[in-house]
Amino acid sequence: MTVTDRSKATRADGSRKQRMLITFGEHAREFLPVESFFRLVHETCKALAAGEDDTVHLTGNIELLLIGLVNPDGRRHLEQTKDWCWRGMENMVDVNRNCDWEWGGPGSRSPAHSLALCRYQPPSIHALSTSPSCRYPKLPCTLHAAALANSQPPLSPCAPSPDKAFNPPFHKHSRLRARACSNTHSGSIKSEEYRGTNPFSEPETRFVRDVAVKYSIDAYMSMHTGAQV
Hints:
Layout: E1 2-3, E2 18-23, H1 31-49, H2 53-61, E3 62-67, H3 72-81, H4 106-109, E4 120-121, E5 124-125, E6 139-143, H5 174-181, H6 203-215, E7 219-223
Parallel strand pairs: 2-3, 2-7, 6-7
Antiparallel strand pairs: 1-3, 4-5
């Protein structure tokens, strides 16, 4: 989905609008980003129709390219099985790690894994594809919220916790899997951070890459929460 002021084809100086790609719902158990997608679209369109200055300026200079649910099959699996801690796609592949940045290395297992979708390698920002036609995004940003396992009670039922009193209804194996898989290498299908069989093996990650290449994005933002249900 593209959100912009359609009455203005270019910026005031005649240059093309800046394009920002924002993705939501990469992990099945992270509900809030998908809801924030709907809220963002609703509030932006309402403010534009009302002629609010900030929104008129924003949409007159920027095209927001929004992918509201990157991982639909993982979300469907979670809802059908009631496994509220399911993280990846239905086949266990983690969207964040199914990319070609340092495949099998830091891009697949480091704490900075989400930046792999932007092929981030300090100090340079690389494109989502090695294609020479793909422009480098100027601003990659990945927003996360911690699982907060140490809070009392923990805000995430998927985070391992000794607090047995906090036990909301979710798949009986989920907490054990979250604990057992948290330190498992992403090359193992037993890991909830499984990177897949090869870079961009999944249609979901190929779609994100292809959108970035097609529209020559200038900025990229990935919205996450720490598994709060």
